[in-house]
Amino acid sequence: MNKAMLVVMDGLGDRPVRELGGLTPLEAAHTPNLDALAARGITGVMNALGVGQRPGSDTSHLAILGYDIERYYTGRGTIEVAGLGMDLEAGDVALRGNLGTVDDNLTVVDRRAGRITDTGPFVKDLDGLTYEGVTLKVRPGTGHRAGVILRGPNLSFRISDNDPHEVGVKVHEVHPLDDSPEAAFTAKVLNHFLAEAHLLLAQNPLNQERVAKGLPPANYLLGRGAGYYKKIEPFPARYGLKACTIAGGGLYKGVGSFTGMDVIPVPGATGLPDTDIEAKFRAGLTALAGPYDFAFVHVKATDTFGEDGDYLGKMNFINKIDLAFELLLDAPHLLAVTADHSTPCALKKHSGDPVPIMMVGEGLVRTDDVSQFGERACGRGALGRLTGLQVMPEIINLLGLAKLIGD
Ligand code: ZN
Fold first, then answer.
1. What Cα–Cα distance (Å) separates residue 91 from each residue in 156, 191, 230?
2. Sign, CA torsion 181/183/186/191
3. Taking CA atoms, which of 35, 147, 252, 336 is between 20 and 30 Å from 42?
């Protein structure tokens, strides 16, 4: 047994909910399979970025996969464009994009253009625009999203978002975030592209069709999270494990691509509550039965319910996840199960509360006395309290692959 599956349930951790009898959604959920695994495994709690730190989903995943964010995190845009299969080159600046709707005064009416489902026919007009030696590259993402790259000399990622992150306010001018001529140049070039893009999008006949149907036109490119290219040691080289990612959400596919894993597409993996979790787990088992040594499987919607404050939805979605875990009860691999951060329903946002973690593998792990996979139960587990950066070393050790230090 020298292969491993890592399952991350996004935003799983929570705080006690009075309406659930003082239990968290995970504690209140019906989880016989997760509990059976906890009884056979070793458990603990984990803070991806350290005690008291509130992680983003991008930074927390990098840490859990063993990449120190101080050294390897180069902005969300970098990871998003990696997830779209866009190759970054040294000197590139990458942004996350949305197609949104603005009125004649450039006031944002809808940040997602009515949750438009395909940006492809719109962004094709923007891809390849050039200005002052810089080329704009745009590729459609899922739904209203798009990946954006600026390619050319003398660029800097130290620029602000033009996305104001709320409706009813004017889109922002991009401005430099430091005094360098590169940041000023990049802001100027991007502002030019955004104005040109607005003209091209407004002229797109598909937008006239949308308006005729009463739909908000996709007439503005909202960009945020500028990042830059960085070469990192790929996960397979770092750990000697051929690795794959199975995820619905673009960011998590991006984390997989960015760290040099193969991203395996799974029909029905949506990143939404309707996602086919069993199909994801089956794909992970198939990958591990084949050439892969490590499968990272991501489940998103726990976080979405937490951000909506929907504790019943979160509990019911955890019930659904648990049903799928039946497939993994007798998996012939090391199984590590955790979350990237807590998203307490009472807060509707990420928090620094630790999340439960367990590692299960017959003959590989010492068991402890914990037989429930929950925030408080796992707090009594023998793994204690880990940081994200300690997760991969522990997995490598349990797989028997850790290098001897000394003689
Ligand atoms: Zn997350």
1. 8, 19, 9
2. negative
3. 252
The confidence score (pLDDT) of residue 115 equals 85
Does residue 254 contact residue 232 with C-beta atoms inside 8 Å? no
Please state, rounded to an integer, the average pLDDT across all residues of the chain. 95
**Torsion 386-389-395-397 (CA) sign:** negative
Q: For 264-300, what is each residue's pLDDT tens digit?
A: 999 989 888 889 999 999 999 999 999 999 999 999 9
Residue 398 Cα to ligand 1 midpoint, Å, equals 26
Q: How far, rounded to the nearest angstrom, does the alpha carbon of residue 193 sit from its chain's CA centroid?
A: 27
Q: Which parts of 260-309 fold into alpha helices (H)?
A: 277-289, 301-307
Whether the pLDDT of residue 161 is over 80: the answer is: yes
Topology of the domain covering 4-73+232-398: Alkaline Phosphatase, subunit A (3.40.720)
Share of the chain above pLDDT 90, in %: 91
The alpha carbon of 114 and the centre of ligand 1 are apart by a number of angstroms equal to 24
Question: How many angstroms separate the alpha carbon of residue 341 from the centre of ligand 1?
Answer: 6
Ligand 1 midpoint to CA 306 (Å)? 10
If residue 181 lies in a helix (H) or strand (E), which one and from where to where? helix 181-203
Enclosing H/E stretch for 58: helix 57-64
Every domain range in the chain assigned CATH 3.40.720.10:
4-73+232-398
312: alpha, beta or left, given left = phi > 0 and alpha = psi -120 to 50? alpha
How close is the Cα of 232 to the center of ligand 1, in Å?
22
Residue 5 and residue 334 in contact, taking contact as beta carbons nearer than 8 Å: yes
pLDDT tens digits, residue range 246-258?
999 889 999 999 9
Pairing of strands 243-246, 262-263: parallel
Nearest to 325 by CA among 40, 65, 66, 2: 40
Measured in Å, residue 355 CA sits from the centre of ligand 1 at 11
Distance 340 CA to ligand 1 centre (A): 5
CA distances from residue 298 to 20, 53, 56, 210, 397 in whole angstroms, order as listed = 26, 21, 15, 34, 22
The whole-number pLDDT of residue 239 equals 97
Among candidate residues 76, 51, 72, 55, the one with its CA nearest the CA of residue 340? 55
